[in-house]
Amino acid sequence: MTRPRFTTVLFDLDGTLANTIPLIVASYRHALEAHGLPVPEEPELRGWIGRTLVDIFTKRHPDQAESIVAEYTRWNVAHLPTLVETYPGVAELLADLASAGVRIGVATSKRRFSAEATLAAVQLDGLVRVAAAMEDTPAHKPAPDPLLHALDVFGADAAGAAYVGDAAVDLLAAAAAGVHGVGVTWGAGTRAELDAVPHAAVVDTVGELRALLLG
After folding, report:
1. Which of 66, 70, 165, 175 is deepest in the core (most CB within 10 A)?
2. Which positions of the chain have pLDDT values less than 50?
3. Which domain does 157 fall in, by range?
4. What whole-number distance in Å separates Cα of residue 83 and Cα of residue 211?
5. What is the C-alpha R_g of the chain?
6. pLDDT at 24
7. Angle subtended at Cα 28 by Cα 25 and Cα 34, rounded to the nearest 5 degrees
8. What is the pLDDT of residue 50?
9. Residues 73, 78, 83, 89, CA torsion sign
C-alpha cells in the first residue's frame, strides 16, 4: 500500500456506503401516497436523495411537510432492516483507510439516529463515525456547512481532505468546502450528472475508489 493521498476522507452515506436507494424511494412513495399526494416517477425521486427531508417536502408541500416527514421517518425506520443492502468491498475499504492512518467520517443529510441505524444495519458502525448529521448545521448540501463541521470535528484541514458521494449535491458541497470531490456511480446519481460537476473525480467501482484513495 502506498502513502494515502488524503489525510481525511469524508463519506456521504445513502447510496455511497450503504445501498439505501430502494428503501428511500419506497419511503418517499409511501409518505406521499399516505397523504393523497401525487408521486413523481422514480428518476425524479432518486434526484431528491442527498437533500434533507425538510427541504424536499417544505418546497413541494409546505402545508403538510411536517406530517409527510414524520410518516416517511416512521415507515423508513420500520423497513430499514429488510430493505437496506450492503455494497461489497466497502467495509474492507474503510478498514484499510483506518489502518493507513486516514481519518474517516460520514457527513450526511440524515438525522443522526437514522444515520447511525443505517450504519449498524450494514455493519459499518464499528468502522466509521457520523461526523456531521442533519442536526449539526443550519445549512445542508450543496452548501459546505456539513463538510466543514465534519472537518472541525476531526481538527482537519480542507486541503488534505476528500468527500466521497453519489450525487451532484455531494460534489458541489465538496467544491464549496474546498475539499476534493469524488463521485461514485453505484448510488442515486447518474454518471452524466456527476461528470457535469467540474474538478471532481468519478469512479465506477469500489476498486477504483480504493486506487484513488490509497494507491
Report:
1. 165
2. none
3. 8-19+85-214
4. 30
5. 16
6. 96
7. 135
8. 87
9. positive
- Are residue 70 and residue 100 in the same domain, yes or no? no
What letter would DSSP give residue 199? T
Q: Which of 12, 136, 145, 166 is catalytic?
A: 12
DSSP state of 184: E
Under 8 Å between Cβ of 205 and 166: no
Report if residue 3 sits inside a domain: no
Domain total for the chain?
2
Q: Tens digit of pLDDT for each residue in 137-177?
A: 999 999 999 999 999 999 999 999 999 999 999 999 999 99
Reply yes or no on whether 12 is catalytic. yes
Phi/psi class of residue 105: alpha, beta or left (left: φ > 0; alpha: ψ in -120 to 50)? beta
**DSSP symbol at 5:** S
Strand partners, 165: 183
Which of 63, 83, 103 delimits the end of a domain?
Answer: 83
pTM of the entire predicted model:
0.93
Please give the pLDDT value at position 3: 83
